[in-house]
Amino acid sequence: MLPALPLIMATPMQDRTLYAALGSGVLLALICSAVAPYERATWLLEVAPVLIAAPLLIWSHRRFPLTHLLYWVIAIHALVLILGGTYTYARVPPGFWVQDWFDLARNPYDKLGHFIQGVTPALLAREVLLRRRFTADGKMLGFLALCVALAFSAFYELIEWWVALIAGQGAEDFLGTQGDPWDTQSDMLMALIGAGLSVTLLARIQDKHIAQLERSGRAE
């Protein structure tokens, strides 16, 4: 468990600065990636979650603002998706570096994507469940967050399957299996590991950020 961090009350100005900084960074990365992606259709499929989530976050930030921690996690997740869409997950350069360093059989960047695919929905589910008072029991809270993350991962695998059925052989770059017959199972395992580590290591930090929101009167 990470040590508790001091609770520092954020001002509305600090909130707006954070929103602008994270939003601008993601938007800039998205624009750069759109200039010359490896394959345009694959790029669109990979960044689609960013294009869907961005307007939802803008719409909800006044009605139900998330913690700064969660906004940071979402922004990092968006950058991972954008980089994967730019090169395709099997061709991301940093993944090749790691592959060479550890003498791996495949580019592991796809697994990083699925790891953080577990982190984001787990923390989001935990925050919503806690703030809406669905449960305050720590073990049940963690279990439900894991269930949501794993369900999201499974649903995403179904989406990949549907895309493969529609696109046929052209979906190979989007699937990113790299010849691994157990790619779906290992993807879901990485998401589960990411979810488990996030709700274990970041729980106290998230709790403090939630308390900060509630004390500022912006939690609802």
UniProtKB/TrEMBL annotation:
Transmembrane segment boundaries: 18-36, 42-60, 69-92, 112-129, 141-168, 188-205
Any matching Pfam family: DUF2238
Keywords: Membrane, Transmembrane, Transmembrane helix
Keyword Transmembrane: yes
Name the UniProt record assigns to this protein: DUF2238 domain-containing protein
Organism: Stutzerimonas zhaodongensis
